[in-house]
Amino acid sequence: SMLPRLKPRCYDDLVIEVAIVRPGPIQGDMVHPYLRRRCGAEPVEYPSEEVREVLQRTLGVPIFQEQVMKIAIVAAGFSPGEADALRRAMGAWKRTGGLDPFRERLLEGMREKGYPDEFAQRIYRQMLGFGEYGFPLAHAASFALLVYDSAWLKCYEPAAFTCALLNSQPMGFYAPAQLVRDARAHGVEVRPVDTCASGWDSTLERRADGEPALRLGLRVVKSLSQSGADRLVAARAERPFASVQDLATRAALDRGDLEALASAGALASLSGNRHLAFWQVAATERPVPLGFATARGADLGEGRPLIPAPSEAECIAADYASLGLTLGRHPLALLRARLAAAGLSPASEVARAANGAPVRTAGIVLMRQRPSTASGVTFVTLEDESGQVNVIVWERVGSVQRRALIESRLLEVHGELQQQDGVTHLIARRLIDRSALLGELLTRSRDFH
After folding, report:
1. Dist CA 216 CA 209 (whole Å)
2. Tell me, what DSSP letter sits at residue 423?
3. In what order do the strands lie in the sheet with 203-206?
4. pTM score
5. Among residues 292, 199, 276, which one has the least CA distance to residue 244?
6. How far apart are CA 388 and CA 382, in angstroms?
7. In Å, how far are 210, 272, 433 from 154, measured between CA atoms?
């Protein structure tokens, strides 16, 4: 929720963005004063020209460790050596007594230089916040460079950006399902795992119009061994596979690898739907009948069984079970009629609701966060076929309804919508676990505490 409020316009804004979301500035009450001053809601005032020179870059709020050191020098009369000792105390994270030994020296020094007591106390409280972990400028600048590069790639090369993230899993807040869904929402064509086209890693393929498409790699198939995938890719490089039997023989895949590929729908170009793939995988264990010169001949000799194709719901369930994602419809699209009948609004309608409006919605839990700086508040991100909803669960609500908060894969939330500075949150009042509606869809949230 910080980005819509800060609205970074240049690289220097990203440096501040990186530094200000650390525990130090948060605990030191530096975040909201900076945001209010940035949007013009609060005047920027400096008690002296010396302080202005130190804090003008960050609108009068000390955000970087170097600024705290300089304030100690220009406002409290610290020597450079004393200021460096102050820096080391802030970096000790309270392990060696923190800033207590410096308190009187700082406050008295600022009084002697004529600074108001309110200013001195506020600066000291902000310094105490840095004892909870704050960034030096160089550290924040280095991170901001990565942020800039990543943002550029995501904006201008979304297929390559998503491909790289998928090949770097496991990592970060977002699971592959969310990465793929976001890429598709931004116009990237994502192609399925295919034993006739996929390598181990996800790759880029050229579309007819010259734009890149993202081909999912074999690495996303659960329970598939990398050694088996390597043999598959090597055998395919010699010549294309003619059938499932041909693939199994030439790549020397065992039953486990073959079933993993069948579960993932990765044999579709050779066998058709998943049910037929499983039937052909089972057939590979039988010896090839005499009189058939090729493995493909054996397949044709067996005939095609009259097995019904899996339903859309079965395909989506199988996708989540074997890949952790789906290229089909979002699971809640299948449940929308039922959710609507229960009076639950989709995310797209929640986003249009008025500030303070009562809201009832439900979504798959993407992640839960309970930062140590949030005073017991849990932040939950829900997703449905139309978008996402950010939910705030106060500690008193979460403690009473802890089981629904912690265990739900599909969570129903009743609450009040809060809109401020372009940021929308749903303040939860009631939580209901609706995971049973998902059936066998194996969704998983990312939980951070």
Report:
1. 20
2. E
3. 190-191, 212-215, 203-206
4. 0.81
5. 276
6. 5
7. 19, 34, 34
Angstrom CA distances, 95 to 19, 101, 132, 134, 193, stand at: 22, 13, 11, 15, 51
Structure confidence by residue, pLDDT tens digits, 318-365:
999 999 999 999 999 999 999 999 999 999 999 999 999 999 999 999
**Structure tokens belonging to residue 54:** 């130190």
71 near 54, Cβ under 8 Å? yes
β-strand pairing of 446-448 with 358-369:
parallel
Angle CA 366–372–376, to nearest 5: 75
Per-residue confidence (pLDDT) for residue 295, from 0 to 100: 45
Q: How far is Cα 394 from Cα 122, in angstroms, rounded to an integer?
A: 27
Residue 423: beta bridge partners?
420
Closest to 195 (Cα-Cα) out of 248, 118, 149, 157:
248
Paired strand residues for 369: 379, 448
Which residues, other chains included, contact 41 with Cβ-Cβ below 8 Å and sequence gap of 6+? none
> Tokens 């010396």 belong to which residue?
50
Q: Which residues of 107-122 are buried (b: 16+ CB within 10 A; e: fewer)?
A: bebbeeeebeeebbeb
With CA atoms as reference, report the closest residue to 345 among 385, 317, 315: 385
The answer to whether the CB of 38 falls within 8 A of the CB of 59 is yes
The answer to whether the CB of 39 falls within 8 A of the CB of 4 is no
Which pLDDT does position 293 carry in this prediction? 44
Q: Which two tokens stand for residue 314?
A: 């079965």
For 108-132, how does the pLDDT look when each residue is reduced to its tens digit (9 = 90+)? Answer: 999 999 999 999 998 888 887 776 6
User: Is the C-alpha dihedral spanning 253, 257, 261, 263 positive or negative?
Assistant: positive
Element (H or E) spanning 187, and its range?
none
Strand residues in 294-445 grouped as ranges (E):
358-369, 378-384, 387-393, 410-420, 423-433
Could you tell me how many helices (H) and strands (E) the chain has, helices first?
23, 9
**Contact between residue 200 and residue 229 where contact means Cβ atoms under 8 Å apart:** yes
- Going along the chain from its start, the domains and CATH numbers come out as 2-139 (no CATH), 158-302 (1.10.150), 331-448 (2.40.50.140)
User: Using 50, 70 and 90 to split pLDDT, how confident is the model at 298?
Assistant: very low
